[in-house]
Design a protein that fits this description.
414 residues; 13 strands; six-stranded parallel β-sheet; Rossmann fold
Length: 414
Amino acid sequence: MRILWVKAGKILPVDTGGKIRSYNLLKHLAARNELTLLTYYDGAPDSRYEEEINRQLPAVTIATETPESTFGQTVNYLKLLPSVAPYAVTKFTSAKVTSLISEWDKQKRFDVLVCDFLSASLNFERSLRTPVVLFQHNVESALWQRQAKHEASLPKRLAFKIEAAKMTRYERATVRRFDHVIAVSNNDRELMSEMVDESRISVVPTGVDLAEYGELANATAPYGENPIVLFLGSMDWEANIDGVDFFCRDIWPMIKAAVPAAQFCVVGRNPPARIKARASDSIIVTGRVDSVLPYLNKAAVFVVPLRIGGGTRLKIYEAMAAGKAVVSTSIGAEGLDVRHGENILLSDDADGFAESVVQLLNDKEERIRLGDNASRLAAQYDWAIISQRFEDILRQAGSFSSSPELSDVAARSA
């Protein structure tokens, strides 16, 4: 099968949830199909990036030469503010990309096209003859609505409200244009079923690299004198910033009072000033690290205190594959096949969240039980299995007769 995968932004380094999901699917699909990744990004051409992505995947790269600086992004946002489409889409729309997709479509070069995230959607013209599948990592309108609700800064809250309204209108109208939509959870499929016929939506759940993370499940974590509570996630994503800030402000003081030796470790790239300011003797903010595995190995409890966001959290399955006990909000674990008290602890209020973490820090047997159950759950979601589900849907969308009917694939993937 000849697949064109269109991705806005650089996919390397693989350091965000969306990149992890896309990269692992691409890697497995490329092993069995004729796949081309069209990746386009802001700024001047980056030869090191282009060489590396071409070494790892068959790729075509385009530098769009739009401003990367904060000032340049602000000017660009104000310039695009009158647009009906949300900024999260218009800023990723490129005449070069649109022209190239159109040209390849006329040449019938591919059997199926994949639009990775809604952000790339305006690059796909309505008149394309090649089937196009939209890969929805999140229900974007729900994500923006949650960001507007929890944003403390008045100017940013106003911008989020404007973008949320735009995204709601745009997403509802746009998902109908695609031949098929792939969601990452049943919850997302239910939300999108209000926008498009449910028979045109399939679910391919989040996966995990068992070869990488599964080995930690059999290791004895050296907790030492200072049991570590760990958060992993890109710290330039608003949902993570809000979640860590909420945890440090409202939850951590209660945990620290109950377990004075405990430390909270925040691992993730580009933490903003307000998160760096939280650093103390008991709160460690690392910034970008070469590998998260050593931090995950040492963690006693893994936390996901998210209040906004969408899609599914890959880091939960990675922590589970490593045999870690996880405490999350319901939004943090949204869309994952988890069970409170069986393989995860869920709490949406600060008191309950702190109580769950303290319980696990003080009860080694319960921590091990929860981690073992979590490890068995994650073992069902290896990327090799998940990528095959994704491929089945692409084959049917591309009118390949060797796969089941698409509705059957959707039902099987639920």
